[in-house]
Design goal:
Elements (H helix, E strand, L loop, with lengths): L3 H27 L2 E5 L4 E6 L5 E5 L7 E4 L5 E8 L5 E2 L7 H9 L3 E8 L2 E6 H6 L7 E2 L1 H8 L9
Parallel strand pairs: 5-7
Antiparallel strand pairs: 1-4, 2-3, 4-5, 6-9, 7-8
Length: about 160
């Protein structure tokens, strides 16, 4: 029998996978072409008889989804499926804000927040300019405002 923690991890993974699929579909509807999931290499170090595995991520990736605009500009998106609370800076892994900012220097970086009230697609530069940062969180109202901004244009 699986532990409660293993069950919760499985539920979280399914919710995250569903959110990522919804986000990819939303990007395609917005006009992003060739939306693809960025695979994260995983090395399995042990398989248990109960079906669980142990392993580690081989390397960090820059985001969850990648695509391009009609004009060929790269679009990198980090998807956060945070279903019933504010989006927190701590929901991002340590390397993710840096990668989004680096990509935004020459391309388009987006944060896609999948919440029970909707899917909010926000330009990373706008997110930062809204005051979001270390130790901060974003509420739905802020996400709704940022989601209404055009996201498929480069910000300087």
């Amino acid at each position: 029998m699986r532990s409660r923690a293993a069950h919760q991890m499985s539920v979280n993974k399914k919710l995250g996978d569903a959110g990522q699929e919804q986000a990819a579909n939303a990007l395609a509807r917005l006009g992003v072409h060739m939306v693809e999931e960025i695979g994260t290499p995983f090395v399995i170090t042990k398989k248990f008889s109960n079906g669980l595995i142990r392993g580690y991520w081989k390397k960090k990736v820059s985001g969850d989804l990648i695509g391009h605009t009609r004009d060929g500009i790269k679009v990198l998106a980090e998807v956060k499926t945070i279903w019933d609370q504010n989006l927190r800076w701590s929901d991002f892994k340590k390397h993710q804000p840096e990668r989004l900012s680096l990509n935004a220097e020459r391309a388009i970086s987006l944060v896609i927040w999948v919440h029970h009230t909707g899917i909010y697609i926000m330009n990373w530069i706008d997110v930062l300019e809204s005051g979001f940062g270390r130790g901060k969180s974003m509420d739905i109202r802020t996400a709704q405002v940022l989601d209404s901004e055009p996201v498929l244009s480069r910000r300087e």
